[in-house]
Amino acid sequence: MSEKMTLYFKQGSSDKVYKASIEEVGSNQFLVNFAYGRRGATLKTGTKTQTPVDYASAKKIYDKLLKSKTEKGYTPGEEGSQYVHTDADNRDTGIQCQLLNVVEEPEQFINDKAWWAQEKYDGKRMLIQKKADTVIAINRKGIEVGAPDTILERANQLEQTVLLDGEAVGEKLFVFDLLEINDTDIRGNAYKKRLTQLEELGLNDSIIVVETAKTKLKKQQLYDRLKAADAEGIVFKKHSASYTAGRPNSGGNQLKFKFYATASVIVTAKNAKRSVAVAVMEGENKVPVGNVTIPPNKDIPTVNSIVEVRYLYAYKGGNLYQPIYLGVRDDMGLEECFISQLKYKPEG
What we know:
This protein is mainly beta. It has five helices and 23 strands.
């Protein structure tokens, strides 16, 4: 008795998708789940039923949900990728990923043969865990989340059990590390060994192993190509190092260099004309850092949500200069929003 519907909204530069479903979870017990976002992107997921209900109740909630969306201009269209819901959006898996510190100068890592380089993708961190009969997606906070079925189905095709680490961009996952294989934890192995095992999995299509530059020439060529393409940045990894969860206080064996500055900030107010006020944390206080305009093809974020912005530089004691809205970061906490992350305009 399960049902599902995909609705689309396209107007001007706005191209959004909304997916709703009634899913059976027991004998005459059902959940009404949903997913939404820009078409082709990794969708945000949620549920209208915190606990299972009978079918009549679920159908009533489902119909009301679809009616509210069609009244806003959403219409049924050609079926896109099926929505795969995980009913544990707030379930902590206990799996933590390695987080990277920023470096200001890339030259020493390009020249040093102990370091390899990869593109820093502009998406959302995602780990994929495939066990004997299940595949789940995990965000950078260790929480089980929804993911495009193209990614989950490709992972399910693997003969081995695995734990992959990567960056989700739209319907694809760009994988750069292998943490477990055949129920064996290999985090303690050197990165070059983990990468070899990752490459031997034969991943393609919706799960892609990232390109790795290993020589000085290849690293310089990758750096030049990414910078010319206005990519987010480049990552340097010490190929002899093990995988260590969390972020070191300084340095580390995996580092990132950004071609432009970004910041995670907190929405403090909605302004007129599609603009929001934003702030960063200093101790326990919120420090205003100006306003950012929300593009017409993106939803206006709610107050107290964390969003990512791109900017040229910050003024000491002032605002971000030329901020550009990138999107909501529901995989981050307040610890990512401190004032120490800001890049200031050089004095003089």
